[in-house]
Write a structure and sequence with these properties.
Layout: H1 3-21, E1 25-33, E2 36-44, E3 47-57, H2 70-87, E4 93-102, E5 108-117
Parallel strand pairs: 3-4
Antiparallel strand pairs: 1-2, 2-3, 4-5
Length: 122
């Protein structure tokens, strides 16, 4: 497996453990609809939370959350729509981003951005 794939899996594992420690219930990991994917689907209270995870080694190329651009948001929203239809869920949905940033010593920092973006109106 490529190192960047291993890093992504490690970051998602860290994000899942972080969310669980904050009281979230993990419903899905890496849920797919065609070529679209949701990293984590969780719930807290009555809210469904779709979480995009971005993991990086250092921030030489900017902050990890900056990679969640309009194109990525559109794909996440489309995948979420497919998820809701497939699972026949009618719930309020929130979109969060969790970043995992590793430093050169192998330590990491987790940042949780709640309501990181809203579904655009097309």
């Amino acid at each position: 497996m490529a190192k960047h794939n291993e890093l992504g899996i490690t970051g998602e594992d860290i994000a899942v453990n972080y969310l669980i420690s904050k009281g979230y219930r993990i419903l899905e990991r890496n849920w797919r609809s065609g070529h679209k994917e949701l990293d984590i689907v969780a719930s807290i209270g009555t809210e469904l939370v779709v979480v995009e995870v971005k993991t990086r080694r250092g921030n030489d190329y900017g902050n990890p959350e900056d990679a969640v651009n309009n194109k990525k948001i559109k794909r996440i929203v489309m995948a979420t729509d497919a998820y809701l239809k497939f699972k026949q869920i009618d719930a309020n949905v929130r979109f969060d981003v969790v970043t995992v940033l590793f430093n050169h010593a192998g330590k990491y920092e987790v940042k949780h951005l709640e309501d990181a973006f809203f579904a655009p109106m097309w």
